[in-house]
Amino acid sequence: MKPTDTSNPDYFHKVVDCQWACPAHTPVPEYIRLIAEGRYSDAYMINWKSNVFPGVLGRTCDRPCEPACRRGRVEEQPVAICRLKRVAADSKDDIRDRLPKPASEKNGKRVALIGAGPASLTVARDLLPLGYTVVIYDQDPFAGGMMRTQIPKFRLPETVLDEECGYILGLEPETRFGEKISSLKSVLAENYDAVFVGCGAPRGRELEIPGRQEAKENIHIGIDWLSSVSFGHTTSIGKRVIVLGGGNTAMDCCRTSRRLGGEDVKVVVRSGFEEMKASPWEKDDAMGEGIPILNFLVPKEFTHKDGKLTGVLFQKVKAEGVGDNRKLLPTGEPDLHVECDDVLVAVGQENAFPWIERDIGVEFDKKDMPKVDEVTYQSTNPKVFFGGDAAFGPKNIIWAVAHGHAAAVSIDLLCNGHDVKVRPADPHTIASQKMGIHEWSYDNDVSMDLRFKVPHAPHELTLRDVNMEVELGFTKELGFKEAQRCLNCDIETVFEKNLCIECDACVDICPVDCITFTENDPEEALRTHLTAPTNNPTTQELYVSDYLKTGRVMVKDEDVCLHCGLCAERCPTGAWDMQKFYLETAQACGR
Amino acid sequence: MTYIAKPKLRHPGLAKNKLGFTHRDYEGRISTLCAGCGHDSISAALIQACFELDLEPHRVAKLSGIGCSSKTPDYFLGQSHGFNSVHGRMPSVLTGANLANRDLIYLGVSGDGDSASIGLGQFAHCVRRGVNMVYICENNGVYGLTKGQFSATADKGSKSKAGGTNADSPIDLVSLALVLGCTFVARSFSGDKHQLVPLIKAAISHQGSAVLDVISPCVQFNNHAGSTKSFDYVREHNEAMNRIDVIPARTEIKVDFEPGTTEVVRQHDGSYLKLAKLHKDYDATNRAEAMAHLQQRQAAGEVVTGLLYVDPEPEDLHTHLGTVTRPLNRMGEKELCPGSKALADVNAGYR
After folding, report:
1. Measuring CA to CA, which residue among B40, B213, B199, B45 is closest to residue B116?
2. Is B29 on the interface with A (CB under 8 A)?
3. Which residues of chain B lie closer than 8 angstroms to A503, CB-CB?
4. Which range of residues forms the domain containing residue A408?
5. CA dihedral A441, A447, A452, A454 (to 10 degrees)
6. What is the mean pLDDT of residues B5-9?
7. Of A444, A502, A532, the CB nearest to B231
8. Judgement on whether residues A66 and A190 belong to the same structural domain of the protein
9. What's the confidence (pLDDT) of residue B3?
10. Using CB atoms and an 8 Å cut-off, which of residues 2-21 of chain B contact chain A?
């Protein structure tokens, strides 16, 4: 293998699994260390800069970082990164004087944002300090988008959302809330320099089976129903409720039902329990509230009597085959009739762009989705950008934020006459953390604690009040202990081959057998003669040095490195050093 | 010296031996020696060898004297028996332990000061008696704990870190062991675990005195230009006589090598030592030839390593003394203290 090129920031960035996996590339280990130090405001600001909604995401994020977490590869569970973010948000001081101020001078450019959800608000935050005039449109009277209408308040209190939307509204965008856009052409006619479409995926998928029309009074589309609950229009539901669908919306629907009078609430999914799209913790929370999840049942018919829903008829199925060949086949058993008073349909969401004219240069693909560049978020009309669920279909808040940052960069480049395809580099630094012979600027002792559980409020209280937050969040003490589980993967092991005397001290001390001094070979062969076998070759690379004095090379498998720094402590010549890699994604406001 | 304990988390794919242990189960406490010390590599090699031999840790006893090397038993086999004895007196304490319980595997860990200076007499007598043990001398040619004076194994003409030149002749423990009738004599280098680990395994399986002289650079006081015990010097002058493979007892052995290139030595315990010859004319079972060859090579400035001599049918101290086969701790009071009449009979036998 060729020596690893560590001058490319991607190399060390990939070692920080959580940050690499995060769509917004939030510097996770850095803020976790700050939490352990009790510097909650500093931890919050790192988050705020990167993901804009730390308080919201600390409660609702889909956490792509956690399955990536290295800790999950050396013990049972990853660090509770998401809930630590909440600790920073809950425990911070008043940080308002650390936020950017409204621009004192306008730059004369005008940008329209359609929808006031996470994607649009991110664009607004990135562009407003630069002097852009930003106009935000939304059909609802408040900012927040799906964060407000679809996420129940028992998961995300309104105060948290108001606070973080407020930080952006404090930058003084022009808001046209309560104004539904019916024509993109008319928006463009207002002579904006750029238009960002961040309207989400606002249409809940229908379930057209017999009885749908006849019993429509008691059959509700999940996201519309959640929105209606959120705005206080809906305050009750029948005692027996069936929720159809296995995603997070279904979980929100069933748990909300339990709080609005539903006593016998069931979730029914077509496929298996394991295949459900809902996050595992959302399923756990639902089941913990006494909601059974029935699987392998395909809805056939809504049954009704005298125009009133009486239940749902299901066909029993089983799964056969795997992957693309996986099919659900009838078992042949008699159909199952489940009685109920109300049904909530949460079987997916769709994008809908009836308000975008097809003759204004915005092209659509076969699936009727706009053609959007995956790097610049620009549509085929150079002035029109898309982001969030509106760009590539339903994803999560953290994706919307990432799209928003990138689109803001594009808009800023466009408005300054630059090529939007020439992207600014992500600013990063790497610096030694050595403080003494065996002292580092970080706590390198590895905690053996298992993942801590977030305390919950008792069901007796939470099931009575649809607005009462269920999770209490980690206390500062628990937050500290959980933070200590972080392996500090951003403190990189950096090897200087000219200093190495090949004494083997690092090989001998490494607790996870990461390091090998060996004859060089192509990667596949090299992986077979490492000190420890490699079982994760696709996610982590081998760090290979140039040839050493004995003609061998140093090979470090990054996969399960604990970043404990013992290699550097036991190195007599300082050939190993622990260096902190810090990367922030390029943002328009940092230009 | 390191402040933190070595994290207990381990590589999820680590190999396990027949006992279900990984090599990490054979570790001891974290080393307090200087970073990069050759002795730590020897500890790691001992860990690896015991792991590969599927040794039950409670069947091993580690004994040592005084010095950097003699501290190391704390850093491997944390679940085994250990005794840190007086300076230079490890061999006699170990001999006593061995007489009392012959069922344990004895690792005597010493250094060049502990073995070639204060303990030279002990070394000699322990070896000539054939105590069944592995005698490891972690040899760095320097008194590290007192900041770098020449030890008795320092080569004539080698330079100290402070700039002095050694005028005295070195004591060569390998040659000495050969003269003393040692039945297993080997030399290795801490920086070459591929050689060292199999040699330790062979030494442990040898049922007699096994002397293993391991050159172990002192990174702090003897790893400079002019030293003959530095990483660079040993790597440049290392002349391995053979490469050894230890094949456990009851393994079918295939003899499909060219004669003259590989030699197979069947040991008393049924295991085999497969020696890949790197020097065609070197015969590791001929003591006289080994001694002559060693002298010639060393005179030419080579650091001769590998398995230098092995007697496939060794005798040990217990055979010489005709002792009982059972360890003393498994005998009852009656057998151990047979009473005054038995004592009188013994005394009468000497009259």
Report:
1. B213
2. no
3. 36, 38, 41, 191, 217, 219, 231
4. 99-202+351-415
5. -10
6. 93
7. A502
8. no
9. 77
10. 2-15
Q: What is the pLDDT of residue A534?
A: 74
Given a cut of 50, the residues of chain A with pLDDT beneath it are none
pLDDT tens digits for B112-141?
Answer: 999 999 999 999 999 999 999 999 999 999
Average pLDDT, chain B: 93
pLDDT value at B258 more than 70: no
- Checking if the pLDDT of B260 tops 80, the result is no
Question: What is residue B257's predicted lDDT score, i.e. its pLDDT?
Answer: 58
Q: In this predicted structure, what is the pLDDT of residue A542?
A: 93
Which CATH number covers residue A35? 1.10.1060
Q: Is residue A427 part of a domain?
A: no
Residues A89 and A49 in one domain: yes
Residue B252: predicted pLDDT = 66
**A507, A560, A572 member nearest B12 (Cβ):** A560
Q: Which residues of B touch A504 (CB under 8 A)?
A: 40-41, 44, 190-191, 193
* Amino acid at the residue B122: Q
CATH of the domain at A184: 3.50.50.60
Which of A438, A439, A532 is the closest to B11 by Cβ? A532
Please tell me the predicted confidence (pLDDT) of residue B268.
76
Is pLDDT at B251 greater than 90 in this prediction?
no
Distance from CA of B214 to the nearest CA of A (A): 14
Q: Which residues of A touch B36 (CB under 8 A)?
A: 501, 503, 505, 570-573
The interface predicted TM-score (ipTM) is: 0.92
Question: How many cross-chain Cβ pairs, A to B, lie less than 8 Å apart?
Answer: 104
Instruction: Tell me if B37 and A505 make a contact (CB, 8 A cut-off).
Output: yes
Q: How far apart are CA A376 and CA A391, in angstroms?
A: 11
Same-domain pairing of A359 and A339: no
B235 touches chain A (CB under 8 A): yes
Per-residue confidence (pLDDT) for residue B256, from 0 to 100? 57
Residue A123 sits in the same domain as residue A57: no
Residues A104 and A84 placed together within one structural domain of the fold: no
Examine the domain organization and report whether A212 and A301 are in the same domain: yes
- CA atoms lying within 13 Å on the CB side of residue B293: 22
For chain A, the straight-line distance linking the first and the last C-alpha, in angstroms and rounded, comes to 37
**pLDDT > 80? residue B254:** no
Q: In the prediction, which pLDDT does A536 show?
A: 60
Q: Express each pLDDT in A256-285 by its tens digit.
A: 999 999 999 999 999 999 999 999 999 999
Interface mutation target, options B3, B6, B9, chain A, most CBs of A under 10 Å: B9
Question: How many CB atoms are closer than 10 A to CB B259?
Answer: 7
For chain B, say whether A509 makes contact (Cβ under 8 Å).
Answer: yes
| A383 and A319 within one domain | no
User: What percent of chain B stands above pLDDT 70?
Assistant: 96
Question: C-alpha distances in angstroms, B295 versus B137, B174, B299, B308?
Answer: 20, 11, 6, 12
Continuous segment of H or E residues that includes residue A47: helix A40-51
| pLDDT value of residue A528 | 87
CATH classification number, B23-321, choose in 3.40.50.970, 3.10.180.10, 3.30.70.20, 3.20.20.150: 3.40.50.970
Report how far apart, in Å, the C-alpha atoms of A473 and of each of A80, A86, A87, A454, A464 are: 11, 7, 7, 6, 20
Q: Which residue of A has its CA nearest to B28?
A: A509
Please provide the distance, in angstroms rounded to a whole number, between the alpha carbons at the two ends of chain B.
60
Structure tokens at B277: 């010859």
B248 close contact with A: CB closer than 8 A: no
- The pLDDT assigned to A198 comes to 96
Asked if residue B299 lies in contact with residue B291, where contact means CB atoms within 8 angstroms, the answer is no
Does the beta-carbon distance from B11 to A438 stay under 8 Å? Answer: no
State the total domains in chain A: 4
State whether B10 and A512 contact (CB < 8 Å).
yes
pTM over 0.90: yes
Residue A322 CA to residue A303 CA, distance in Å, equals 33
Q: Are residues A223 and A323 in the same domain?
A: yes
**Interfacial A residues in 521-550 facing B (CB < 8 Å):** 532-535, 549-550
